[in-house]
Write a structure and sequence with these properties.
The chain is of the alpha+beta class and 138 residues long. It has one domain (23-136): Immunoglobulin-like, CATH 2.60.40.10. The protein is 17% helix and 38% strand. The longest helix is centred in the first third of the chain and has 19 residues, at 2-20.
Length: 138
Amino acid sequence: MNRTYIALLFTIFFSVTALCAQSYRLTLDVVGMKEKKGNLLISVYDSAEDYLKKPVKTLTTPVDALTKRVVLELESGTYAVVIYQDLNSNGKVDRNFFRLPTEPCGFSRDARPKMGPPRYKPASFTLSEDTEMSIKLR
């Protein structure tokens, strides 16, 4: 009886743990690249406090076509994605005199910059299943 009870508790515990740590695929179709050069720098943020400061996931991939498909594995949650094309491969966003980016960049949910990058909320989305989204670089 005790063995059955303990086995049942372990089964319930591991089932609940598996549900809590469920991960999903986020497939990003990056479009709008004007040149086949440099790298795509992809940053994923999971809170407004860390947005544009401390990504939970980053990925750098070479640009070898004018469109790119990238697949990320993420736990369920709320996220915002920022992508920019580092044309000269220097590892940072180049800016002009007015501090505006001179390299193509894009945000999840097609959030648009207005006198600076969009805030977290307009760019954020909830990931609760495998999801595909397109991000246009501008």
